[in-house]
Amino acid sequence: MDLRSNDKKENTQFRNELTIRFLTALLVDYEKQWYLGMIRRRTLYILIKSVEKAKHQHSLKLHWKLIVEHFRLSKWLQNLMRLDCVKWINKESNKLLFDHIFLTIELTLVAFHSTQTRMDNIRKQFPELANIGKRIWNKVYAETHLYHLTATYILLDLQQSYEACWRIHMTKRCAQMLLKYESKTITELYETGMLGHSVYSHILELIEKKSLKLEFYRVSMVHGHLKAIENPFDLLPLFRSLPNHEKTRWQTIMKAKHRWFQPNQILLEKGQRVSTAYLITRGIVECKIDTMPIYYRLGNIVGIDALFSQDFLAHDTYRVSGGLLEAYCIDGILLNQFLKDETLAPSIYREIALHVLSNKYQTRLKLNRLQLRLLVHKRAKFYWNESDISIQLKENQRLFILAGYVTHLFNGQNNKYESIQLQIFDNEVEIVLNSSTVAYSWMDEDEEFSIKDTNLTVHFPLQTYDLLSNSLLYPGYLSQVTQFPER
């Protein structure tokens, strides 16, 4: 008798049972949110359908996958958006895009949240599951936590990328919740005899009309306000400091490079030669290294290190994470235009340096990616367009040569260091830069500062999660199932 096989089969059954209970808890939560006026009936139907399919397969992954399918742009909308030169078509496609983003926000808000609370409540509510081993519980919890984090990242990006759309959605959400609360309060007043039947019926009719309008009718931007979805070019920090005439010139150049990418679409394959990098304006790009995901978003240019240097290949596989991605395609010609512009070049070189240091020298420097970003942005000295000047580097000072070469003067000899490389000198040295040199230098103390600094606001931060109020976004998941009256 194969005991190992029996144990494995039993563990699979336990895991499946726990997954079904968790999905059932999600379903109850979704219905509760609909009852409270937090989501529309259409959204509830999408979620119910997804949960029922996932329960048949005992799969949390399938539930998330089916939700993400609704984040995809339809072919019809994609074709309409390509005809943006026609004013009426552009107006209609913007309306449809607004509706699509609105649904994406709504689905992401309710997809995976309060994971720990829900798992703890399941453990209390179903004592028969006590026989399930801790390892199985932890596995299911880890999986739900992964989807919870992914949804949180997408949600934060939606909040920042589609600010007006987010504001409209949250206003509508709050209005529906208030109307639900008002309906309950008016009923309580009527039951105490403070309101006559005719007044009570009239007020309820007004509330119901408004609720139905919010539930089934399209919500749009108030007339006279800014458009609901901003121009993606205006979001990019790279061009914000430019004079208006320069900004207009770059906007014309970049318009032809604008592209939409669908959820989970692969941008770059690991080990491939890169001819196009991607400047992100909305959405998130994910790169998994040793099972740990790294997220890139607004302003990041994925693949720029391999585009800049033909000696490099794509460091890993980069794919769109969850939601839609809006980006500009950067080829070698456009990259050279950036690097020739005196205003843009420092920012572009900083982005290249960050990617090269992260992908090639991270273990040597013993800094994580957030710390490297802080180091490059705030601590390192930048050398560019210097004509035959000499600098003195102290003991243990780092010199990162990104482009061109430098000359090391030592005992009357000239040693040439070509790019791309990182040098750490044991003694004080004299380095001669030239017009081709692009380099960064920093001290050991700068690395220590980057390690100790906790205010890492230069990266897409996990700590900004506290900007989202859980009490506003989600109802608490109760240990007891609430009985809902008919709506």
Descriptive notes:
This protein has 487 residues and is an alpha+beta fold. The protein folds into three domains: 3-161, no CATH class; 234-360, Sandwich (Jelly Rolls); 377-454, Jelly Rolls (Sandwich), CATH 2.60.120.10. It is 52% helix and 15% strand. It is built from 18 helices and 16 strands. The protein has helices at residues 3-35, 41-57, 60-69, 75-82, 87-110, 115-125, 134-161, 163-191, 197-216, 232-235, 244-255, 304-308, 332-340, 345-360, 362-365, 369-379, 444-452, 470-473; strands at residues 258-261, 266-268, 277-282, 285-289, 292-296, 301-302, 318-320, 325-330, 381-384, 389-393, 398-403, 405-410, 413-418, 421-424, 429-433, 438-442. The strands form four sheets. A four-stranded antiparallel beta sheet has the order 1-8-3-6. Strands 2-7-4-5 form a four-stranded antiparallel beta sheet, with no helix packed on it. Strand 4 (285-289) and strand 5 form a beta hairpin. Helix 5 packs antiparallel against helix 7, helix 14 runs antiparallel to helix 16 and helix 16 (369-379) packs across helix 17 (444-452). The protein is globular, with a radius of gyration of 28 Å. Mean pLDDT is 81; it is low at 456-487.
Keyword list:
487 residues, Jelly Rolls, 3 domains, four-stranded antiparallel sheet, disordered C terminus
